[in-house]
Amino acid sequence: MDEGVLREISEKLKPKKYTPDQIIIKKDQTLEMMFFIVDGRVTIEKANSQLQLGAGDLYGEELLVSPLWTSSGDAKPINESVRAIDDVQALVLSATDMATLGFSSRRSINELRMVVTILQKVSSFLFRRRIYNDVTYLIYIMFSSCLRN
């Protein structure tokens, strides 16, 4: 993956904060974003179960393999909600922004999956140490160094 794509992805990631008990994703709505948890915890609430995610975890990876972020109109509502347990800081990539990145081919989707894997690996390193200044630049630097090795 070239550095231009990495830069473009890092520029589209938006830092966002959620407060305790705030609903981040509502059940029965179309999934419109994927987010990486930088700090804090969320709970995924389904009909009969709950799952907690924390720093370094990702939610919404279905956007990588489904038509949710395309203009096809085939998107289905999700059957779970996501709620902040405590103060949460996240990096959000919206479905709209993902569509503008041009990830339409299998190769491009695999490249985005690689980016997701890298983000998962470096986010806990960066953000558990409270390094929040210029988040997108730091992620770009980490992407670049990981891909060169």
TrEMBL record:
One of its GO terms (biological process) is monoatomic ion transmembrane transport. InterPro entries: cNMP-bd_dom (IPR000595), cNMP-bd_dom_sf (IPR018490), RmlC-like_jellyroll (IPR014710). Pfam families: cNMP_binding (PF00027). It comes from the Eukaryota. Coiled coil: none annotated. Signal peptide: none annotated. This is Cyclic nucleotide-binding domain-containing protein.
